[in-house]
Design goal:
seven-stranded parallel beta sheet, seven-stranded mixed beta sheet, alpha/beta
């Protein structure tokens, strides 16, 4: 699987002259890289240029040159085992004057004094420097890390830091690459060379996430390919090259306008944006995903970085390149996703989340109840697994169990597949403590695998956060560093969705650079620094209308019934309204966003309706003479909830000035009145008008009776008018009651409709979850089916008869070869083994199996079948993965041929041993390796033994016989006996067999005949 993944990533990277870099980024980096504006601007005249109209002073010229020198890129190179050879090949092809700085970070023993500098001087004329604390980086220099110290860079200054002993392993390459990404952003460049382990993998992803460029040595060239292979598997590599070709591509890249002059432009802003839009249309046509509402600065930086990789200077040419190369569209799409994450990112934030939000969530839950968490934009899953570990720690501490469901979703299908596997490089030890690694991970060579307990908490699925239905009934949403890459339009669309999906008092966890914006009526702030928010239980509706109250009873056409209903109306409510309208000063009720919720009295003198679209924000419609003071008072009350009063304020009313007191007062704290403020306007008469009014009253008293008559008539007219007004008000109240009842009915219908819509959305969310779970189950079924097929093929291919029994000695499974020994059919599953007839004596089989199950000691013996075949029978206990005994395994290995061979060998040995003819075997160098008993007679006369060499003359004969590959015969006398020795060469074995024939009697008869 790892090899397949490596090959997939390699096809997407630039290799051997191909320009198809591999880029796979799934969520959001911690830092937003700066972006090209795309506008055509002239380079600053202070940068080593002189015009006819303006001369540059030597001081300015020197400063400009210094600023230019500060813009060179910084390259980080990580190397371990086999790195010296790779570095030699790299620097032997690197130009001496290259306008960049190189920092080489190696794995060094704490007490080892490196001589790398002396070795590299043979291959480059660049200045080679051992890093010291606080050293400023200069161009055309190579910096080497010291042993037992980590190297970081800040403001282009190298800092040495003592490594922490709390981490499981030292990862100096990752440490430097991360600091390089933070310090240099899009100017950062990192290169991974030969080495063992996974150091450099996470650092490379950080550089890519901040817009930098990444290179990796071709793993087929690397002496140790572990580091290059793991880096390639991230899919975040731009170039996969042999070290000899890296300098050429590197120098081309740094000369691109993206690096040399990041503010340079090639066209007008309008044209540039038009090309960007066309590129986004290309992506949407191929992938179906629209990036038009993502932050345009980020979009541009990603496009320009791809242009730099391909050495394309004009965006119009890059658009043409996309139209021809569909693969580049997919790579650019993956680059837009920006997936850089790690375990417990911002450790302090996760510690606070554990102490506050997660603790409160578990506190309000009963044992075995459900806890639901959603991590949208989870990338490769580190953040989702981090939350699972926090939940597990609290559950272990409280010794309580909960049904935890964490949904990790992302747009990048490759990242989701990686997250599902739950296998991460060993370099995560830089972010995860030793205790957590031991408790929740399993070490596998150069990787860590999440334990089954944590893995079962999570469900991963591909999801478009903008288009696809969300999950529901959630206790926590962790959406970190996703919203910062979306514009205000998408943020306003997503945050209400988060509010809807959360349970009452649910929590929202955002990134350190994100916020809820204007949605303060949906969430309250729990921690402003680490952006932990809590869902507000009640949402206040917008609008200045008086809230409608449900009226008891129903609408009736009969007049008597109407009067009956009228009597049931709450008269206290009407009395309060009457008093407020006649005697209370004008006032306005506003929420914490300064939107008007309720108005009482004649407020038109203080609030004006501006032209254009209507607004309910009191600061926008307040009288211009009042706006500044009101804004100041509302700002004060938002800081400190107490009464603020301003007396004697004046505003212009037509041609006169109106004097009034302004009171801003918070309502009594409560769940429903949180953040509400009442603003009261109390009109006052000026002192001069008050005196004139008193004098005028005295004059009236002294007037004639005629005036009194007029006063009486006026009073009568007022009373009549008042009565008419009251009757009209009564009719209005009746009409209001009818209207309120209609509104109440409408509200009920609206509520029913909203409930139906909510049920529909919940069903959609439930369906989405079921589809997600079903997808996971299908994958597991496929894996299980594959494993089962592999197991069946393995058992069948071994041709070893095997039968599996449970603890009651009933048959569970058997291999096809078992039918040679038992009359067993598939229908015999779950039958006792003793009920099956066999082709050998099975009288003791049941007892032997029961004894093994009782003692857990294996039993091995030989059995003979009815057809004279021999088998080696082994009875073993069946152990599960949890080391529990769950039955018996009986295997039968056919040893018939082996038994017959043993018998033949035994028979042959007996034959050779008792043969009266001397038999010897001699090796090529004359060593005696075998002799039967008859042959010992010859050895006694030769004064030799087995495993010793023959005398020299005989050794010469042995070599000659082997060289000629022909038999030889010699007659030799040994004491009183004469033997005919036959030397037979065995060339395949490089030895000679000597056979001796006793011809003593024959020799005597010859001698007699001769006499």
């Amino acid at each position: 699987m790892a090899k397949k993944k490596t090959e997939t990533a390699k096809k997407k990277a630039v290799r051997s002259g191909e320009k198809e870099p591999a880029v796979r980024i799934a969520t959001v980096p911690a830092k937003v890289p700066t972006t090209l504006t795309g506008t055509k601007t002239a380079p600053p005249k202070t940068k080593m240029q002189k015009t006819k109209k303006q001369a540059i002073t030597p001081a300015k010229e020197k400063k400009a040159a210094k600023m230019q020198d500060m813009k060179f890129p910084i390259v980080g190179i990580g190397a371990s085992a086999g790195g010296l050879e790779a570095l030699e090949g790299f620097f032997s092809h690197m130009p001496d004057q290259n306008n960049l700085a190189i920092v080489v970070v190696q794995h060094l023993a704490p007490t080892y004094k490196s001589i790398m500098g002396n070795l590299l001087k043979k291959y480059t004329k660049m200045k080679i420097v051992d890093i010291s604390d606080g050293m400023k980086v200069e161009k055309n220099c190579v910096y080497l890390n010291p042993p037992d110290m980590d190297v970081a860079i800040i403001n282009r200054t190298l800092q040495l830091i003592k490594p922490l002993e709390t981490h499981a392993a030292r990862l100096p390459i990752d440490f430097f690459f991360r600091s390089l990404a933070d310090d240099q952003g899009e100017k950062a460049i990192c290169i991974v060379l030969s080495g063992t382990g996974t150091d450099g993998t996470l650092g490379l992803k950080a550089v890519k996430g901040d817009g930098g460029m990444t290179m990796v040595q071709d793993e087929t060239q690397a002496r140790y390919d572990s580091m290059p292979r793991n880096a390639i598997n991230t899919g975040a590599v731009d170039f996969i090259l042999p070290v000899e070709r890296m300098p050429e591509e590197l120098t081309k890249y740094i000369k691109h306008p993206y690096i040399e002059s990041p503010r340079a432009a090639i066209t007008t802003e309008q044209k540039y944006q038009g090309y960007v839009t066309k590129i986004l249309l290309q992506i949407r046509a191929l992938t179906g995903h629209d990036f038009s509402h993502y932050k345009q600065n980020t979009i541009r930086r990603r496009i320009e970085r791809r242009m730099a990789v391909h050495q394309i200077d004009k965006i119009a040419h890059y658009l043409d390149y996309l139209r021809v190369n569909t693969a580049e569209i997919d790579i650019l799409y993956k680059d837009m996703l920006i997936g850089v994450t790690n375990f417990f990112r911002d450790q302090e934030a996760f510690d606070l989340l554990k102490k506050t939000a997660i603790f409160e969530i578990l506190k309000g839950k009963r044992p075995n109840s459900s806890i639901r968490v959603w991590a949208p934009g989870c990338s490769t899953g580190e953040e989702a697994y981090s939350i699972a570990i926090l939940l597990a720690e609290i559950m272990d501490k409280r010794q309580m169990h909960y049904n935890v469901q964490i949904f990790g979703t992302d747009l990048d299908a490759d990242a989701i597949e990686f997250a599902r596997a739950g296998v991460y490089p060993e370099s995560i030890a830089a972010d995860v403590s030793k205790e957590r690694l031991k408790q929740y991970f399993t070490k596998e060579e150069n990787t860590y695998r999440l334990k089954k307990r944590i893995r079962e908490m999570l469900v991963f699925a591909t999801q478009n956060l903008i288009k696809d239905p969300p999950f529901s009934r959630l206790d926590l949403i962790s959406c970190r560093n996703v919203l910062i890459y979306m514009d205000a339009f998408l943020q306003k669309k997503i945050l209400p969705v988060f509010h809807y999906t959360l349970n009452k008092d649910g929590y929202l966890f955002l990134g350190s650079s994100e916020s809820i914006g204007e949605f303060t009526d949906l969430f309250s702030v729990e921690n402003p620094k680490w952006k932990i928010y809590k869902r507000k239980g009640m949402v206040i509706e917008k609008g200045a209308e008086i809230p409608t109250m449900p009226i008891q009873g129903a609408i009736k056409t009969d007049r008597k019934e109407e009067k009956k209903d009228y009597r049931e109306i709450n008269f206290i409510q009407y009395a309060e309204k009457e008093i407020l309208s006649k005697y209370a000063p004008p006032f306005v009720l506003v929420n914490e966003k300064h939107e008007i919720l309720y108005v009482n009295g004649m407020i038109h003198k203080y609030l004006l309706t501006p032209p254009g679209l209507p607004s309910f924000n009191i600061l926008k419609i307040a009288h211009e003479d009042l706006r500044y003071k009101l804004s100041t008072m509302l700002h004060k009350i938002s800081k400190k909830r107490e009464i603020h009063i301003e007396r004697g304020l004046k505003i212009k009313d037509n041609e006169h000035f109106l004097t009034f007191d302004l009171t801003v007062k918070p309502l009594k704290p409560g769940a429903e009145t949180e953040g509400l403020t009442i603003i009261i306007f109390e009109e006052k008469l000026p002192a001069e008008k008050a005196k004139k009014k008193e004098k005028f009253s005295e004059k009236i008293i002294k007037e004639s009776p005629k005036i009194k008559a007029l006063e009486i008539e006026l009073k009568s007219t007022k009373e009549y008018l008042q009565a008419t007004i009251e009757e009209l008000e009564t009719s209005n109240e009746e009409l209001k009651s009818t209207n309120e009842e209609l509104q109440s009915t409408n509200e009920e219908l609206q509520s029913t409709n909203e409930e139906l819509e909510t049920s529909k959305e919940e069903q959609q969310s439930t369906n989405e979850e079921l589809e997600t779970v079903n997808s996971e189950l299908q994958n597991k079924v496929i894996e299980l089916s594959r494993s089962n097929n592999d197991l069946n093929n393995l058992l069948a291919s071994t041709e070893i008869a095997t039968v599996f029994l449970d603890t009651r000695l009933n048959i569970i499974r058997f291999t096809p070869a078992i039918t040679k020994l038992f009359n067993m059919l598939p229908s015999d599953i779950k039958r006792p083994i003793g009920d099956i007839t066999a082709k050998f004596n099975v009288s003791t089989l049941h007892n032997d199996a029961a004894e093994v199950l009782r003692t857990l000691n294996k039993k091995v013996c030989r059995i003979k079948t009815n057809d004279n075949s021999w088998y080696n029978m082994r009875i073993l206990p069946y152990r599960t993965t949890d080391n529990l005994i769950d039955g018996i395994v009986i295997t039968f290995v056919d040893i018939t041929e082996l038994t017959e061979s043993d018998e033949k060998i035994t028979s042959m040995g007996t034959f050779l041993k008792g043969n009266p003819t001397p038999m010897l075997r001699i090796t090529q160098d004359g060593t005696i390796v075998f002799s039967n008993e008859a042959g010992l007679y010859l050895l006694e006369h030769w004064k030799c033994k087995v495993n010793y060499k023959l005398p020299t003359p005989w050794n010469t004969i042995i070599r000659d016989v082997l060289a000629s590959n022909k038999q030889e015969q010699r007659v030799e006398k040994f004491g009183e006996k004469t033997f005919l020795l036959v030397f037979v060469p065995i060339k395949e074995g490089a030895y000679v067999n000597i056979y001796g024939v006793d011809i003593s009697e024959y020799q005597l008869s010859l001698e007699k005949n001769e006499k």
